[in-house]
């Protein structure tokens, strides 16, 4: 049936003088032409995840047919509005037959990111976790519901540790667009630099005979874990990743980055410096290869 409907639509377009094989301005031009020729005598449903409501094409769809906007309300920063999220949360919990503590609800709203599907996914995990319990409590949210804002910060520090400037700049833009203040991002970046410094010092010091560049995690477990304890605090796998990423830097570089972080902090607190440009400059400096800096000298 779908094939017959598509063939019928194509036949209608050809009979109306529309040449679908020619681009002539792209898909938007063809859709506009389709509307101007007049809609066929059957229902046509077009669905899109993103649409610019300022365009002439969108306005023509409103004039010629009906437009149903199912997007969730957003703040100017791009974050989903608290009211829209609360309404979505109440509806889903009602469907699941659950009630939620006020503090737990506030925690979910604070941890929500920019995508509704991600919030829905975390809610489903939460409902599975509480099982037959009628109430969702703070401890349940703390245990299961991922803080999507923190996840994005982790993505940023991970990209910096891997010297991936493209990914780091992308994560920075996403964080800033969601309302994260640049000064709040300096602390986790500084923490990552100090962690890399600690790993680098061990690599160049007491563990230089045990750590090998390119070592796999099973090899790390066998060689570096003493009575199951990692050489640095934290989850052993994340400690392994710190050692692995520390191979990307010299100790001199990491010390220099602490100075850059201090300078960035001063610039962000002073006037006349666009915060986004200040942060982008920091990221590009941190991701530059050592060879490039040596060549400048």
Written description of the protein model:
There is one protein chain. The chain is mostly helical and 297 residues long. The protein folds into 3 domains: 2-64, no CATH class; 82-146, Helicase, Ruva Protein, domain 3 (Orthogonal Bundle), CATH 1.10.8; 150-290, Up-down Bundle (Zinc Finger, Delta Prime, domain 3), CATH 1.20.272. It has 15 helices and 2 strands. It has helices at 2-15, 27-37, 56-64, 82-95, 102-111, 116-130, 138-144, 148-161, 165-177, 182-204, 217-224, 236-246, 251-269, 275-287, 290-296; strands spanning 99-100, 135-136. The protein has a two-stranded parallel ribbon with strand order 1-2. Helix 5 packs parallel to helix 7 and helix 8 (148-161) runs antiparallel to helix 9 (165-177). The model has no long low-confidence stretch (mean pLDDT 80).
Write a concise synopsis of the structure shown.
With 297 residues, this protein is an all-alpha fold. It has helices spanning 2-15, 27-37, 56-64, 82-95, 102-111, 116-130, 138-144, 148-161, 165-177, 182-204, 217-224, 236-246, 251-269, 275-287, 290-296, and strands at 99-100, 135-136. The chain is built from 15 helices and 2 strands.
List the helices and strands and how they pair.
Elements: H1 2-15, H2 27-37, H3 56-64, H4 82-95, E1 99-100, H5 102-111, H6 116-130, E2 135-136, H7 138-144, H8 148-161, H9 165-177, H10 182-204, H11 217-224, H12 236-246, H13 251-269, H14 275-287, H15 290-296
Parallel strand pairs: 1-2
Helix pairs in contact: 2-3, 5-7, 8-9, 8-10, 9-14, 10-12, 10-13, 13-14
